[in-house]
Amino acid sequence: MKRILLALVFGLAGTAGASIAAEPAGLPVSKAASGAEVYIITPRDGATVSPEVTVRFGLKGMGVAPAGVIKSNTGHHHLLVDVKVLPAAGQPMPKDANHLHFGGGQTETTITLTPGTHTLQLELGDANHVPFDPPLVSKRITIHVR
Question: Is the pTM of this model over 0.85?
Fold first, then answer.
């Protein structure tokens, strides 16, 4: 079923127009809107928080759409927890405890973190979970969990 859906998505991507550029070694890469920004609204950089922390996502200059929806200037959020190296360009972002996907178009989440210091960063992905070109990433923030 996944192969059928991917074939359908790639078939539609070919008709999406100039917003998608060919990537030689991977999935098509969507172009980011000029001046677009993704950012973390809360918590603030340096905040001390409880283990259950609500993270609110911000986006300026583009819209949010669920994964699988191919529409110019839209994408969905991925929350990177304690990630030091951004996901590879032209490849779908990993999905694990450090790379959280919000393919339903969510703009906030509550996560549980262990006590200690953690980093949070957002990266906007296109309909296929592929980072935009150029990548749309927030400032990496540091929070302290008590």
Answer: no
DSSP lists the bridge partners of residue 75 as: 64
Which amino acid is located at 106 in the chain? Q
Single-letter code of the amino acid located at 119: T
The number of residues in the chain equals 146
User: What DSSP designation does 19 have?
Assistant: G
pLDDT digits (tens, 9 = 90+) for 72-116: 999 999 999 999 999 998 999 999 999 999 999 999 999 999 999
Measured between alpha carbons, how far is residue 7 from residues 2, 4, 49, 91, 99 in Å?
A: 8, 5, 43, 16, 25
Least Cα distance to 13 among 128, 133, 132, 135 occurs for: 128
Q: Which two tokens stand for residue 126?
A: 């296109």
- In angstroms, the CA 50 to CA 69 distance is 35
CA triple 17-122-111, angle to 5 deg: 130
All structural domains of the chain, each given as residue ranges with its CATH number in brackets, are 2-145 (2.60.40.10)
Average pLDDT, stretch 52-75?
Answer: 97
